Amino acid sequence: MTIITCIEDLRVLAQKRVPRMFYDYADAGSWTESTYRANTSDFSAIKFRQRVAVNLENRTLASTMAGQAVSMPVALAPTGLTGMQHADGEILAARAAEAFGVPFTLSTMSICSIEDVAAHTTKPFWFQLYVMKDREFINRLIDRAKAARCSALVLTLDLQVLGQRHKDIRNGLSAPPKPTLANLINLATKPRWCMGMLGTRRRSFGNIVGHATSVSDMSSLSSWTSQQFDLSLSWKDVEWIKQRWGGKLIIKGIMDAEDARHCVEAGADALIVSNHGGRQLDGADSSIGALPAIVEAVGKEIEVHMDGGIRSGQDVIKALALGAKGVYIGRPFLYGLGAMGEQGVTRCLEIIRNELDLTMAFCGLRDVALVDKNILLPGSYPQ
Ligand code: FNR
């Protein structure tokens, strides 16, 4: 039996079990991957102050994100084509998150549709929206998210154009997969893990059926993106979406204090400091590097969340210490899903929860709400 004690163990197992082109799709960053690497390495540079002889009884990680109660301030990030890591991946991840009491965010570009996920869960999940040119299509997606009782809309603004990932091009990643010899050999040796795309139930993007029929590979996905995604997007559109949705709005993809100010003016409930997990602007700052300036600029007016590079509970608490109200994990839960399905996502959340709880204790705290810069070694963190 494989022993899983950390997120890295899940990654290694996922790499063994998931066909290479699907694993690479999840694991890669754009171009030189410098921002992708910085997302994790910049966390390592931050140091804690260890405290002793403090009462550590009755610790709690319970918090809220965008007004919603969470068992710990960690949500699952929206990830497109999650069903490539495991058949029905979106449903399995949503169920694991629901059981754990943390938010699951369904991507516009998911394989399982909004209705599929709603039919297999009992509590509201969050829906992530990309802004397409076709406003009627956005209207329909918003109506479908409302009908499914989604309790927050996560509006992603950092993907008007698509960053290039060399591995996807080299692997000939397509949706659904193209039957090249290398792909067939790879898929045939790991069949059970890729049924989301190859199985009979779901073969393509569940939410955009009819809009993505022409997408056959990554280069056509890139040109489809530039055809469909709104290159003329402005903050006026964000205000329109806020009004049209009418519920909790979380704006994702903010790396600049001026853009954070626009989020406040647009009436968002929260923003996510995010560089899309290093998959878009290669050469941008790490998310943890960008967080303090944004908290400083708007933290008193709006909830600031972050994602990018979180691989442990230690990373979660560092982000909270620098002012994040909550964080999101992308690849860690995808590794869990690819390694062990729903059980793997649960294991991922357990690992992060245990690490977060123990690290909080080592720092001398009992309540996650009390985490602040005082737990960090001065001079070791970005200002
Ligand atoms: C993403 N991300 C993403 N974001 C989004 O708003 N909509 C999407 O459809 C996707 N798709 C997607 C696919 C895959 C495979 C990955 C890895 C990421 C970005 C995601 O929400 C989040 O910002 C990052 O994953 C956070 O970084 P970590 O936790 O993966 O390091």
UniProtKB/TrEMBL annotation:
Keyword Flavoprotein in annotation: yes
EC number: 1.1.1.27
Gene3D superfamilies cross-referenced by the UniProt entry: Aldolase class I
Residues of the FMN hydroxy acid dehydrogenase domain: 1-381
Keywords: Flavoprotein, FMN, Oxidoreductase
Gene Ontology MF, one: FMN binding
Active site per the UniProt annotation: H276
Name this protein carries in UniProt: L-lactate dehydrogenase
